[in-house]
Every structure is written in structure tokens, then in C-alpha cells.
Amino acid sequence: MAITADVLNSLISITQFNKGQASKIFDRLRTERQLIVLKNNTPSAVILSPEEYERLAEIEEDYQLLLLAQERISRGSLDRAVSFHEAMANLGISETDLNEAEDVEIE
Questions:
Q1: Which strands, in side-by-side order, build the sheet including 34-39?
Q2: HEC profile of 19-42
Q3: Which pLDDT band holds residue 77 (cuts at 50, 70, 90)?
Q4: What is residue 5's predicted lDDT score, i.e. its pLDDT?
Q5: 0.85 surpassed by pTM
Q6: To the nearest whole number, what is the mean pLDDT of the chain?
Q7: pLDDT above 80: residue 7
Q8: How many CA atoms lie within 13 A of 6 on its CB side?
């Protein structure tokens, strides 16, 4: 039931844009992840907050990587896989090098 209430609260009419209320609509995205724009009482568009868009884009990217990994596994690509320790040895990186390295944020 809470999901239904959230959806109903996120509905906005295209008329609000035509009446110069776009600023108020965009202000709502500070507290709401998405707004559904209605045209003639039919959903016509969805406006996402930048945070929600980024979250969904990351989910899609992770999903694409998962599909790629599953495809490679199904083709037997693991036969050519290199272990973590072997890769480190090939690159000339030691455990000490890793422990002394600064933290890096990966996006």
C-alpha cells in the first residue's frame, strides 16, 4: 500500500509546467527520487533526481558486466583465467606494495 501512495504522490500534471511551476516541480526532486508527468491523465514522462539517475545507471552497468561474465563463463573462458597472485606476480606487485598503497575510490 505504501508503494501505491508513493506513486500517487509522485504524479504531476503537464499543466503545472505550462503554468510556470517548473521550479517547484524540480525542487521536489530534492526529496523525491522520481516524478511521473501526466498528459491527459496518462503517464507521459518520468523525471528523475540526479542521484536516482546515477543509481539506476550503476545498476544497469553492473547488470551488463554480470551478463558479460556469465557469457564468458559459459564459453569456458575460465580456462584462460589468471589467479590474483599470478596477475600480481606478472605485474611485479607484492603484498607489501599493496599494503603501502594509498586508498583509491573506484566508481
A1: 11-13, 34-39, 42-48
A2: CCCHHHHHHHCCCCCEEEEEECCE
A3: low
A4: 61
A5: no
A6: 85
A7: no
A8: 7
Measured CA to CA, the distance from residue 47 to residue 58 in angstroms comes to 18
Report which residue type is found at 85. Answer: H
**How many whole angstroms separate alpha carbon 37 and alpha carbon 60?**
23
Percent of the chain with pLDDT over 70: 91
Give 49's contacts (C-beta < 8 A, 6+ positions apart): 29, 30, 32, 33, 34
Amino acid sitting at position 71:
E
Strand partners, 45: 37
At 8, the amino acid letter reads L
Rounded (10°) CA dihedral 52, 56, 57, 59: 140
